[in-house]
């Protein structure tokens, strides 16, 4: 038996919360991306050509969109769950007849549906994992600044990994964010550093892995149910 | 035999090195008003959290309306409404929005709106229904918590220290509401620090101390188990030296008021009065009073309040 209305209500609550703080959740990421675009494209557009026939601004746009989506997917899911965990209001959700799977789906659906991209699902899930693990805002911030930010900046948003030395190219292949950016860029430009199917497979496998970890954490009750 | 509303069997809970509950067992009858008392750290909230599925027991089982809280968790959560001890709230929503959301979590739609409106009115929240939760006073937030716990019309209502830190008016509203819920057939489980509250409202009581049940009976029977009564005497001269036979029964001497504790069977008031006359101690007034739950609680737990 699935509590469909419960799942829908929890999903609707997350979207409602998202909309109520639109300056933080929508306007800020838009302005940030515009600033990146303005600065990098005005400085480098005439000087850099990553793929033949594609100017740097065109190359940059898909990467920036994807980076913004995945970073905000993490920020939204983590701040929502962590805030309610910290102030205790999560109790009223935990007291309701909502299963772990329904809880996971409802908390993550806004980003999945909102951006309709697997990558945001992954980052949304990482946001849930981080907020379950975290005991203070410092932990969320550390996760964001020392894991999410470096992985997204080193994923080829601003460059093609072919332009890197061989060692760093190999390292980049271990970065799952690289496959999200590269695959998403293929959708816009029709060109990518590696096969789009490999990217899709790796991103899909990574999504399944982090989802399982998140569901196991919810099932164990770690940090949520004593 | 009627199925109990809550059946608690041999519950153990250990947090790292702390044994919070050690073999707690008792039943709460359907439609009863049950009090769970104990000093801070006795394990009351832990037991309630296990009942509500917020904490997992290390050992033992709890059933709510015949359903196991772990195996039939959906059914038990439908049957249970919990008012938490802390003032927890989601700062993004108004009172009305929050109650609609809470109702939706339980799978209830538009058909429940009339009950939400009734709850808002009963708890005197009508003027505040469009107010964001964080803007409400502590008392108003407490009312919203109660409304949230009742939004799905649970058969068993758990109130974890609902009157802690609330003003006299709200306490009266809460008392009236819990009495009304009880009258309507709800089973009420109340934890409180106010022993006079438990004595006034609860039909049966369990006292927890250090994770164990130290008393379990009707409120009247628990109070009657206490073998002492008290004698208050207003001395004419409070600096007078009391004879040993009086001193050994003295509980307190506040100003001129001397309180003595007398064993119901072994001590006779007449003997004590003779001791006063023999020592030539005068007094202006005297009265006896029966022990309340507070005296029983102190005797059982060694602590001053619930």
Note down, in words, how this protein is organized.
- The complex is a heterodimer of chains A (226) and B (306).
- Chain A is an all-alpha fold.
- Chain A has one domain (4-220).
- Helix content of chain A is 77%, strand content 0%.
- Chain A contains 10 helices and no strands.
- Chain A has helices spanning 4-20, 22-44, 56-87, 90-94, 100-115, 118-133, 137-153, 166-173, 176-189, 196-220.
- In chain A, helix 5 (100-115) packs across helix 6 (118-133) and helix 6 (118-133) packs antiparallel against helix 7.
- The longest helix of chain A is centred in the first third of the chain and has 32 residues, at 56-87.
- Chain A starts with a helix and ends in a 6-residue tail after the last helix.
- Residues 111-116 of chain A have low confidence and may be disordered.
- Chain B has 306 residues and is of the alpha/beta class.
- Chain B has helices at 44-52, 73-79, 95-105, 113-122, 138-150, 168-183, 195-201, 219-225, 244-247, 269-278, 293-301, and strands at 6-15, 18-28, 33-37, 59-64, 67-68, 80-83, 156-160, 187-191, 204-209, 212-218, 228-235, 250-254, 257-263, 283-289.
- In chain B, the strands form 3 sheets. A 6-stranded mixed sheet of chain B has the order 6-7-8-3-9-10, with helices on both faces.
- The longest helix of chain B has 16 residues, at 168-183.
- Chain B is elongated and about 80 Å long.
- The chains are: A mainly alpha (226), B alpha/beta (306).
- The A-B interface holds A 1, 3-6, 8-10, 12-13, 16-17, 20-21, 84, 87-89, 91-99, 221, 225-226 and B 15, 46, 49, 52-56, 73-75, 77-78, 80, 82, 84, 86, 88-93, 97, 101-102, 104-109, 148.
